[in-house]
Specification:
The structure holds 3 protein chains of 3 kinds. By secondary structure, chain A is an all-alpha fold. In chain A, about 75% of the residues lie in helices and about 0% in strands. Chain A is built from 15 helices and 2 strands. Classes of the chains: A mainly alpha, B alpha/beta, C alpha/beta. The interface of A and C includes residues 20, 226 and 275 of A.
């Protein structure tokens, strides 16, 4: 087999081979949860559960379906990107939000919108997001690298994130946009309200491409558990690994953020919760994190729609509410380890 | 017969200018704050007072108006303010103009207003009108403040005639079932009851669908709710791609496009009824026309 | 397979770490790399493994330049064990050993019969069967070292390059490891290890390469290279060689005065 060819896992037929026997129950459960929550999402409207009272097909097809599809795609992208980045950076705190990929994507998207590019070319929106995410991720990898410990990574991520968000605010204020204040809330906290099939078509292919790239990183990430030198000995091309990880994350997270704004913590929480169930092996974590991310985002979006049917509550608020207890638990755990 | 908003404004303006030729300065005895001489260096830092002011005094007496007055999306007089200085309303900028009267909105930046008052400038805080009578009251109040009480009455009279003309003969429509309308804006905002938009809808012979949807004073309306329970007339306040922002995506949603294709929609530019000025009559006129079209369509079925 | 370095010079961060080093690792033989701290032992091993590119000279595997061999294939020929015992995640001991099968095409999801056998044999050889399912961050330092060596065994590579594999192992397990190395050598494998324990080197290594400040001070059969005066000079320590029940021992007496 030519080692230079990018390994894209074949779909469907090899699913059985892709999933280890021990993980089959978990994968099946998460798949079932995703399917069930997707059904709930399709049946949930501002008035409660059930099919729409009128214009049912229009509402289901044009409003509820895109929202459900995006939850699945974006959740999968974020969960997988988190697992992949944590595996690549060998750092359990890595995730698209913390390393600034999401903020970078937001900046790229806002630039695409407010320079008018998206009016001439709709694709400029996801492309702007992806370029922004790429720049941010590459910058953080450069600053902190794989050799940087958790502290260096967080510092680099905070730096890049802050700059990106500040520039985003700058662009919005310069745009003379009377709705700049509201718009920045969208970019910083994310929302899936009123997304349409157009958005699915714009960002979907890029998210799928990013997912495919990231999903192929399994064996390289496993080898990387032993450090770079041993990984090289086991056949890993470190340069190509870096490229695949960074580009895959940028594609998936960049296009997702361009459509839905920054949705944080999914990429952090999902791999953390699922890691013990897969023996902490990075490759096994990829598959379950993809499904776990979809499940989590569907659940969060359903919760948002139950709490504020007209859409005042932002998705990012809910994911932050989920993520913060995890952070607290990490702090407690770290303190305990220091004192023992 | 359709008439452009511009030309509809002509009667009011002509009236105002006609009276300007009289050139006397009537004395006022009512309010204690009335000056001995009418103010000559007026600065308006509020969009709504800008527009009322422009029909009450000649340009020479206006030092500056707010920068929003030239914005087509929010000002009904955007094309008539060229040549008048614009200010963003910061205290220092206003003071530099040495005004003898400052017109501000009730909710204009309190800090700015406080500074101006503390420095002894005369500031008239004009509340925003929420209904037809309120508009007349506000016009009269500003007229009082600028020393043009008679012209103010003329403007009010012109407004009443304009309104009556706009509403036209809809005799009998009060007893007939009033169609419903909903004002749907950027960021899923729908206008609720008790505010100016609501009263304009009522003046044009509509019920406010937002009440039917339980929105109260207005607020966010989920697109799905709108689609599931649409009004007889959907009212938009501008072209759907007017604002290049994510928060206006709701206006560009395919489902809304479908709704607009299937149901009656009218666009009444927000600049006519954002502020409580006589120019809401133009908004009423357009809404009434839409209502007539709606009734004709129903009758045709 | 014969692994050789021919007049290899290696630079790291602008500093010349190896200067014109030539070594030939023989089949069926254990070669010990000895030298003071910073002499270049680790660098030489990494260069022989193909992880570092020499600025001069070349490394050949059975006469073929190592640089020409595809990465994954090289992993099936050469098993390299780094000095730092890194395992980033708390994977099981078995999973650590199983990583050695990656060059053979296995993944965590799909494990073939040959892979399973190789892993089982490696775990048994390193006496890890009892703790095979325990997470690697919950075993002792010595057990971790053995698990990592099991990975190298599972690779079933004809060449094994190990950097201080017995550091931190108790005497029993150190002796076990050398016994395994001897068995592997008898099977025809080519083995090179860097180590500090000169007595063990004298006892178990067929050949010795003595490095001093990036240069080869001596290379050849153990008996030839390991002379008291040569190693005393190389380590700047007065060394005495002796025997105990026919087992050679090397004792450092005192630092040599400059």
């Amino acid at each position: 087999m030519n080692p230079m060819k990018l390994r894209l896992p074949p779909i469907a037929a090899l699913l059985g081979r892709l999933v280890r026997r021990e993980d089959r129950l978990l994968v099946a459960s998460l798949s079932a949860a995703t399917a069930l929550l997707a059904l709930v999402s399709l049946l949930l409207g501002p008035g409660g559960f059930g099919l729409p009272a009128a214009s049912a097909s229009l509402i289901l097809l044009e409003i509820r379906l895109p929202r459900t599809l995006l939850c699945i795609l974006i959740g999968a992208s974020l969960g997988l990107a988190g697992a992949a980045l944590q595996g690549y950076l060998r750092n359990p705190l890595a995730e698209p939000g913390i390393i600034g990929a999401s903020s970078g994507a937001g900046l790229g998207a806002v630039l695409a919108i407010h320079t008018g590019l998206t009016q001439t070319l709709a694709l400029a929106l996801p492309v702007g997001g992806m370029l922004g995410a790429l720049a941010a991720t590459a910058l953080v990898v450069l600053l902190a690298g794989e050799r940087g410990g958790p502290l260096t990574l967080i510092l680099a991520g905070v730096a890049v994130s802050s700059v990106a968000t500040a520039l985003l605010s700058l662009v919005l204020s310069l745009a003379q946009n009377p709705f700049a204040a509201v718009e920045i809330v969208f970019w910083v906290l994310g929302s899936l309200a009123d997304r349409s099939l157009v958005h699915v078509a714009l960002a979907g292919p890029f998210m799928v491409a990013g997912i495919a790239l990231l999903a192929g990183l399994g064996r390289s990430l496993d080898a990387l558990s032993l450090g770079e030198e041993a990984a090289e000995n086991l056949g890993v091309d470190l340069a190509r690994l870096r490229l695949q990880a960074v580009i895959g994350a940028a594609l998936a997270v960049g296009s997702a953020t361009a459509i839905a704004g920054t949705i944080g913590f999914v990429g952090l929480v999902v791999p953390h919760l699922l890691r013990p169930f897969v023996g902490e092996e990075p490759s096994r974590l990829l598959t379950v994190s993809l499904l776990g991310g979809a499940t989590l985002l569907l659940a969060a979006d359903i919760a948002v729609r139950l709490l504020t049917p007209a859409g005042e509550l932002r998705l990012g608020v809910l994911t932050a509410l989920i993520g913060t207890p995890l952070f607290l638990w990490l702090i407690v755990k770290a303190r305990r380890e220091l004192t023992t | 017969m359709r008439r452009a908003g511009r030309r509809a404004a002509a009667p009011v303006l002509a009236l105002a200018l006609g009276l300007a030729g009289a050139g006397t300065a009537p004395l006022f005895a009512q309010t204690g704050t009335a000056p001995a001489r009418p103010p000559e260096r007026i600065v308006s830092i509020n969009l709504c007072t800008d527009q009322i002011l422009l029909d009450l005094v000649p340009r020479e007496r206006i030092r500056a108006i707010s920068h929003l007055a030239s914005d087509r999306s929010v000002s009904a007089l955007y094309d008539r303010v060229a040549g008048i200085a614009a200010t963003r309303g910061e205290a220092e900028a206003v003071l530099a103009l040495d005004p003898d009267l400052v017109l501000a909105g009730a909710y204009s930046t309190p800090a700015t207003v406080a500074v101006l008052e503390r420095l002894g400038r005369r500031v008239e805080k004009v509340p925003a009108a929420q209904d037809i009578e309120g508009i007349k009251a506000v016009v009269r109040r500003v007229a009082e403040a600028v020393g043009e009480r008679e012209r103010g009455e003329a403007v009010v009279g012109a407004f009443e005639r304009w309104l009556a003309e706009a509403v036209g003969d809809t005799g009998g429509s009060e007893s007939a079932k009033r169609p419903s309308a909903l004002v749907y804006q950027v960021n899923n905002i729908a206008s609720g009851s008790g505010n100016l938009a609501d009263n304009v809808l009522a003046a044009a012979g509509f019920t406010n669908h937002a009440v039917h949807l339980g929105l109260g004073a207005g607020g966010k309306l989920a697109l799905e709710s709108l689609i599931a329970s649409p009004p007889d007339l959907l009212v938009l306040t501008g072209p759907v791609d007017e604002y290049r922002t994510v928060t206006a995506d709701n206006l560009r949603h395919p489902a809304l496009a479908r709704l607009r294709a299937e149901r009656a929609t009218v666009t009444v530019p927000w600049r006519f009824w954002l502020c409580g000025t006589p120019y809401v009559a133009e908004a009423v006129r357009r809404l009434v026309e839409a209502r007539k079209a709606l009734i004709e369509r129903r009758a045709a079925r | 397979m014969r692994l050789a370095a021919q007049a290899v010079s290696v630079e790291l961060k602008g500093r010349r770490v190896l200067e014109s080093v030539s070594v030939a690792l023989g089949e069926g033989r254990i070669t010990g790399l000895i030298g003071h701290n910073g002499a270049g032992k680790s660098t030489l091993l990494k260069t022989l493994a193909g992880l570092l590119k020499p600025s001069q000279g070349a490394v050949t595997l059975d006469g073929q330049p190592l640089a020409d061999i595809a990465r994954r294939l090289a992993g099936r020929r050469i098993a390299y064990l780094p000095q730092d015992r890194i395992v980033h995640w708390g994977i099981s001991v078995r999973a650590v050993a199983a990583l050695g099968r990656l060059p053979h095409g296995s993944t965590a999801a799909s494990v073939g019969a040959a892979d399973r056998e190789a892993v089982a044999a490696a775990l048994a050889a390193m006496d890890l069967a009892a703790i095979a399912d325990r997470p690697i961050d919950q075993v002792s330092g010595g057990e971790r070292a053995r698990a990592l060596f099991a990975r190298a065994l599972a690779q079933e590579a004809p060449v094994i390059l190990a950097d201080e594999p017995t550091a931190g192992l108790d005497p029993a397990h150190a002796l076990e490891l050398f016994a395994i190395l001897q068995k592997l050598a008898m099977e025809g494998r080519t083995i090179a290890i860097a180590l500090h324990d000169l007595s063990m080197a004298a006892r178990f290594c067929h050949d010795i390469v003595l490095l001093h400040s990036g240069r080869v001070e001596g290379a050849g059969p153990t008996a030839e290279v390991l002379s008291a005066e040569r190693i005393s000079r190389a380590f700047s320590v007065h060394m005495r060689l002796g025997q105990f029940d026919n087992i050679p021992i090397v004792v450092p007496i005192a630092p040599l005065r400059p």
